[in-house]
Amino acid sequence: MRENRTQGSARGRSGNWPFYLDWSLNKMKVKPPVNMHSGPIKLIFEKIVDIEPGGELVPFYHFKITKEDGTEVGHINFKVGDTNHIRQCVGHIGYEILPEFRGNSFSYLACNAIRPFVRNFYDKVILTCDPENVSSLKIIQKLNGKFLNEIMVPKHDPSYKSGSKLRRRYEWEP
Which of 126, 77, 112 is nearest to 97 (CA)? Predict the structure, then answer.
């Protein structure tokens, strides 16, 4: 049974944060499929990064993004959790492509590769980016992300402390 909740919340779970965190950590014991690819790229599962409960950060899956020949071109993270930090500032998906491989649609392809795995957790997720990051804006548009709003990053949020002041928020149905 699929149950939708707004703002990228996990399927079928409601209630307070500690209960949700317990569910997230249990769900994260599931290993992702080995064969995650899109076009010329493949995702290689590296690790689950656990986070201490009680804060705004959440556990996440970390994958290397590689070309067919095994050359590493970057990484992508899938965050499982529903804190204000995730919903408002950083979103559920984060990626980085190494400078020498940018401009090849590898981040778009990585999002497509991770899409079926994300659907095991969410019907909808939040994607965010800096309004001046034209490359990420194009990727989100190409993924058919639905614009939600643009927000000022709260001064207490971890993103603010690392220099992020403004974020555009999108909803993506993987």
Answer: 77
